[in-house]
Amino acid sequence: MIPRYSRPDMVAIWSPETKFRIWYEIEAHACDAQAKLGVIPSESAAAVWKAKDVEFDVARIDEIEAVTKHDVIAFLTHLAEIIGNDEARFVHQGMTSSDVLDTTFNVQLVRAADLLLADMDALLDALKRRAMEHKFTIRMGRSHGIHAEPTTMGLTLARFYAEMARNRDRLVAARAEVATGAISGAVGTFANIDPEVEEHVCAQMGLQPEPISTQVIPRDRHAMFFATLGVIASSVENIAIEIRHMQRTEVLEAEEFFSKGQKGSSAMPHKRNPVLTENLTGLARLVRMAVVPAMENVALWHERDISHSSVERMIGPDATVTLDFALARLTGVIDKLVVYPDHMMTNMNKFRGLIHSQRVLLALTQAGVSRETAYTLVQRNAMKVWEHGADFLDELLADADVRAALSEEAIRSKFDLEYHTKHVETIFARVFGA
Amino acid sequence: MIPRYSRPDMVAIWSPETKFRIWYEIEAHACDAQAKLGVIPSESAAAVWKAKDVEFDVARIDEIEAVTKHDVIAFLTHLAEIIGNDEARFVHQGMTSSDVLDTTFNVQLVRAADLLLADMDALLDALKRRAMEHKFTIRMGRSHGIHAEPTTMGLTLARFYAEMARNRDRLVAARAEVATGAISGAVGTFANIDPEVEEHVCAQMGLQPEPISTQVIPRDRHAMFFATLGVIASSVENIAIEIRHMQRTEVLEAEEFFSKGQKGSSAMPHKRNPVLTENLTGLARLVRMAVVPAMENVALWHERDISHSSVERMIGPDATVTLDFALARLTGVIDKLVVYPDHMMTNMNKFRGLIHSQRVLLALTQAGVSRETAYTLVQRNAMKVWEHGADFLDELLADADVRAALSEEAIRSKFDLEYHTKHVETIFARVFGA
Amino acid sequence: MIPRYSRPDMVAIWSPETKFRIWYEIEAHACDAQAKLGVIPSESAAAVWKAKDVEFDVARIDEIEAVTKHDVIAFLTHLAEIIGNDEARFVHQGMTSSDVLDTTFNVQLVRAADLLLADMDALLDALKRRAMEHKFTIRMGRSHGIHAEPTTMGLTLARFYAEMARNRDRLVAARAEVATGAISGAVGTFANIDPEVEEHVCAQMGLQPEPISTQVIPRDRHAMFFATLGVIASSVENIAIEIRHMQRTEVLEAEEFFSKGQKGSSAMPHKRNPVLTENLTGLARLVRMAVVPAMENVALWHERDISHSSVERMIGPDATVTLDFALARLTGVIDKLVVYPDHMMTNMNKFRGLIHSQRVLLALTQAGVSRETAYTLVQRNAMKVWEHGADFLDELLADADVRAALSEEAIRSKFDLEYHTKHVETIFARVFGA
Amino acid sequence: MIPRYSRPDMVAIWSPETKFRIWYEIEAHACDAQAKLGVIPSESAAAVWKAKDVEFDVARIDEIEAVTKHDVIAFLTHLAEIIGNDEARFVHQGMTSSDVLDTTFNVQLVRAADLLLADMDALLDALKRRAMEHKFTIRMGRSHGIHAEPTTMGLTLARFYAEMARNRDRLVAARAEVATGAISGAVGTFANIDPEVEEHVCAQMGLQPEPISTQVIPRDRHAMFFATLGVIASSVENIAIEIRHMQRTEVLEAEEFFSKGQKGSSAMPHKRNPVLTENLTGLARLVRMAVVPAMENVALWHERDISHSSVERMIGPDATVTLDFALARLTGVIDKLVVYPDHMMTNMNKFRGLIHSQRVLLALTQAGVSRETAYTLVQRNAMKVWEHGADFLDELLADADVRAALSEEAIRSKFDLEYHTKHVETIFARVFGA
């Protein structure tokens, strides 16, 4: 997590202030439940809420931790400084540090997921708007980087929309994976704390009780969460790569918006580089690198070990902050993408008429020519275009074998671009609804 | 995929025979749909079914491919050899190779997922059965590898059950991710093929039509699929690590079943090594290694490139075959795991009474001792056990400060093991249902 | 490891036949050393060499292993079947299975490294030859995919040469990493076997004795080996990506060689796709996926566990076979790459004269114009080229502010392409030697 | 990079202040070289050194960058503010941003490597000292987590020493990989800058000139660098896992030093958890996660793209800071590790005499018993120890078949522990030198 690739709302989720605030809420709600169960005095539970509006002193807590080398004890000591040692006596009773830490981590991940979902909604909006705008903007479809058959810019954007909509669904599922809390005490047996405390705290914090925890919430949940972020990041890369290709000098079908003050290069003033999508390509790698360690975190020793903790301190903020930034940046890129329909048409005509070869091939087959022969007929004329810059239509019209099978009109009819867009509406209906 | 870690049913899904069979079915169903649309003659479509019971000649297809360097064309050529060039003329019309290849890959992944789901059901059964058997088999709970408080072997197995049940749900979702097909023609525009063909073929093959494809089915779906396998493998590792710990000489709370003919070591005949779970630890790494390349496969150039193909030829079979083998092996391990309840009890008593320290701490707090003081009282007696092998109960009873707060009876009552199992039923109900 | 991406020499290294042959040699050499030390009878040692020319019966060994569930014991049993139980009595004395297995694995990796080094030599030859051929073939240099300043195709190939030469050095180092053997007995203490046995066996097998082993050879060596393969694979990807870019329709500065019988697409016969380099992009991902599991293999429990074994059974063959195939394929691609110097020149002129902007900027600065002003002057003329297809030279000549600083001759002199190639020889001398 | 896992010297390398300082030095040295070549006025070059002792104003540079969106231009603008626009006119002439950025990154990596080398030296010292101390401290050697044969704590530490010494050599090689600089101008042709500038700057900055750069230094170098850090981290994990095993309650052969004020658990005061080595296990995952993105960074488009940049901004600091912290932490753990030789002996005797089975097996073989029979004889007595807690020596002495082959004295002699340590000196000499 570095400022350059961070946005404040996501950063705030991971601040010490937020963390201590969540710790406090968990402890306070647990006291309420314990009081209701008659385990601790009601007044003690009530007293904890005295700190309701307190901003905890992060520096002071750090100071205590430097001595105790234990963060939760440090926080509880500081809390006692605020509400009084006597009232604080029953705080945390029957709980372990992990009850607080793990539940807090999940609260943070859930909040992070909520921000990411909002990011994705904005991205989906932008993709949809631009897809609609360019529904029938014809451009070359390419397989292997080679011209294939025409498609439209709208279809390109629609497929990114569909991919991101799938990612949104995955993120909703990933959010549910980590939306659990555990207040189950040492090794998770509830020996020293009633399950009702967990139920109450979870309900208050917007979580489900973890059905079976072992002092820690099982880490397969988090592995799934970070794996999902990795998939989303890979889709970000997918869109970024498309735009980088579109912007390369020889293609130039689109460009990232280039503001007036911006300088592309200290040496070559004419250059307009797709730096945002290049950056997104790198950010995708960064989000993805959390996936393997998150999976390595699953196999903890016995009821728990603490090896996952350092990993999560890093990847929790890093992966969510970076993905949040990336999604927002991508939304901006899509929103303001400068599209050049005329360049798209110019590119399509680079090999004069050649993109219609598939249709001619089919026409020949349907006219009774064997598949192999048809292939040969098309290929020999195509090669003239490819190698000598001939016009494909002219060559076909001049090829006696082709003409033996197809009339001039039949051949000419195969060079109609609208033929390729006839199902755009069908596909849009599938993607965006009727 | 190596024979040592393979089972035949999963291997069969990835055989050339199965692949060509699926290709054939897709082509034949497509012909039916094309005939119904009037695009090709009904007799031609019907003729394709002449090959219905043919075993395709893999060697012959390979031979043709050696010339054409194109696998689908090689297959179609071979198919024409069987049903006749004339009848074969309309096969594959308007389609691209990817229509066949991608739909086939997804059929294979769906079938693989079905086998894996069956594997997981067997594993869940074994885990549940053994969990019930050892519901109240008390053993030491450990955090950081250090004795913490008692738990039960049943809870250990129940948490693995819960984790694998989550994995089953994830796998159902992952199966749905890849249960799509595409027959959308070059660059996915349906220019040369009606969407109804896709609908018909998908329905016949048990798939959903891909809402928007671009000659290829988008690879974020597969990234999610393999990521899910990676999470499942991490859970396999989690269980394997637990058993390896239980079997280590100093712990010896359980052992993998050791058949009569088996030799543990060429040098040390007394050794019984947890080789199955060690093996599972390695297999988990192997399944997991598919995750990153599957994510790197998402960003294809424009409408498609073929870089994903070699990756999938390897990880498709490897990850599913290895995970299938691992799940079956793990099921066997769980099913026949030799559990030693008496060793569990012996281990628990290693530090005489020390595991009850938490309860004593709470009792002191509840008796009005401040948290800090109670902590000190417990710690000073605990250290005598730790360092000099004293008996914790004796020390507490002899500690005047402790006795000032708690009666002998009160102290003794804290050394009751059943205290720790009182919520086992609660947790089992959460995991297995009431 | 799949046949499609395999070459026979590398596959042979990993065959059961080779493996058993190496096992045999290790055991036989160990017997020699033991006999020399007087530990076993000389005749027994000599008898082992009776099997010198025997092809071991893999099926028979598998059969025995099915009973014993231990591969080395199975092999030794089979060996005894060949040389006689009596003579076989002293074979493997004082050794453990790992002595044989680990030393064998390293012999295989060393042989694999030797093949890979030969592959790299062939690749370096091809790169050098083509670099020399195109030393002064001018093409556009691009940063961010955007035209920057001219370079040459020779420089492109020379940088790949330099990168692969570095990789060759790395591979030599990686080979040395794994060129160790261990015959140190149970837990590596030499309690039951003299270190001289290890020395003798290693010398005979072309290895160094592992200074300290613990029944296994430490796995940091293998982690380094596979990490190095991962770096080499990433360089393969780097070259592949360059060629894919060069072949894309709008660029078309080079093409993979396209043989006569080859068909590019079942649907679009004119297409010539960079399928080899796309394939290499995928193969790079496959080689790279071995890196993380190899690193996860380092942390074995105590003196050894067997978790690394399944990983190595897979990645040992897979990573080396795939990389061998990839290097050979890449060599073929480079060797036969069809280069289009005229297209390179056409692309360079896409924005008429704009590539010389940097030189004009410098000339202005040197003529006393402030950096900021010079930048503005260049940029305003550059934008006319960019946006309206103007000729950069014409625009500059017509710009009074530019002309106030630079004469017509001075401006024209900045449009000379050879200016950019003046240090090509310097760089070639650095890369290939004087 | 988070404060909790950071040390100030390494953090300082990555501060904006250090970065700008290196940028400045590169620009100033380049001016010197340009002046010497007569390209720029000597006075201008001299003027740049006016800023020699200036602390650059990071906030001001950020402010400028917010407008220009280009960091190097922002810095140059700020530099001009300090030394005067007129004098600054020739700064950066003929260079590109990447000349500065890439050379700077490598300077930082080299400095980071130097710190890491110092860390490793300290670690090696600690390992050696403790290895010498426990050279003959006998402990159980374990394979598969199961008791095998005796070894010594010194050997354990010596193998970690040997592994880390290898890692030190690797790091020296990795440092050399990135110890290059490039001042080669746009797309690396030296068209606008003489190679002598690069030579001068590199010599001044302690680097070698990159033989062929393309505006960027090739990223295979950095991939190798981070891969090496990943291997080192895996070795850190290896040592950490060993200590965690030793500290687990049932083993308790060693403990991390536990300071007086430290609290192990908020709930269980007697617990002393191996939290440092658990933490190191997690930190190893964090360092390792940089490896794959660093490899993905190798394949940049054409002469360069900027996708690597965001990755390096994160993993450059993160991986080096985390590894620096981890190595220092590990050194502290080793340095102060509390070793329990008596517990080691107690553990060894858990299965009374069983660890000597291998020696008895060999003795039987040497006494003329067939290998198979000897194995059976040993195994049947071993099983009595294993299953019924018998004493292995007693059982053997009472076994008529064993006694038929071996005298009582012969059997008793096999139960001598020093037998296992007879080559400790040999191994120590190999590892630490004679």
TrEMBL record, chains A, B, C, D:
MF term (GO), any: N6-(1,2-dicarboxyethyl)AMP AMP-lyase (fumarate-forming) activity
SUPFAM superfamilies registered for this protein in UniProt: L-aspartase-like
Highest taxon of source: Bacteria
Positions of the Adenylosuccinate lyase C-terminal domain: 352-432
GO cellular component: a single term: cytosol
Keywords (A to Z) from UniProt: Lyase, Purine biosynthesis
Pathway the protein takes part in: Purine metabolism; IMP biosynthesis via de novo pathway; 5-amino-1-(5-phospho-D-ribosyl)imidazole-4-carboxamide from 5-amino-1-(5-phospho-D-ribosyl)imidazole-4-carboxylate: step 2/2; Purine metabolism; AMP biosynthesis via de novo pathway; AMP from IMP: step 2/2
Keyword Lyase recorded: yes
GO terms (BP aspect): 'de novo' AMP biosynthetic process; 'de novo' IMP biosynthetic process
E.C. numbers: 4.3.2.2
SMART domains (alphabetical): ADSL_C
Record-linked Pfam families: ADSL_C, Lyase_1
Catalytic activity: N(6)-(1,2-dicarboxyethyl)-AMP = fumarate + AMP; (2S)-2-[5-amino-1-(5-phospho-beta-D-ribosyl)imidazole-4-carboxamido]succinate = 5-amino-1-(5-phospho-beta-D-ribosyl)imidazole-4-carboxamide + fumarate
Similarity remark: Belongs to the lyase 1 family. Adenylosuccinate lyase subfamily.
NCBIfam families, alphabetized: purB
PANTHER family from the UniProt entry: ADENYLOSUCCINATE LYASE (PTHR43172)
Protein name: Adenylosuccinate lyase
Organism: Roseinatronobacter ekhonensis
Gene, per the UniProt record: purB
